[in-house]
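Supplementary Methods, section 5.1.

A reviewer requested that the exact input to the structure prediction be made available. We therefore reproduce it here, unchanged from the version used in the analyses.
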Amino acid sequence: MILLYVNGIYYIFYFLATLAMIIYKSQVFSYPDDLLASDLAVLFLMGILDVPRLYLGFKGNLTEAEAPLGLSLGLTVGSVVLCVYLLLWQTYVLWADVLLNAVLLSAYGLESGLKVTAIAAFVS
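The structure derived from this sequence is encoded token-by-token as follows.
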């Protein structure tokens, strides 16, 4: 449960920092408009995906139900794919991007492991 709180708070920081870096990169580097829109769309899609992921994680943990935790785990896979996109295939990747994405991927990994453990405990 604590990891969900920490992940929610970190994601707010991650979203704002990544948005600020995209704005910075668009001002400092020659950032093609279509690629800027693509990177922003991925970031906002990731933000939209993270809200139900965290909500279902909280709900499943508090009610000890497998279905919300399983759905949250599925949404985590989607968030991981988008995070890897921002880590590897973004137009310009700064060292701060690598650091922020590495911490987020680590948090997703820990959270997923605990979700799988919780689902196994709830089923048995």
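The mean pLDDT is 96. These observations are discussed further in the main text.
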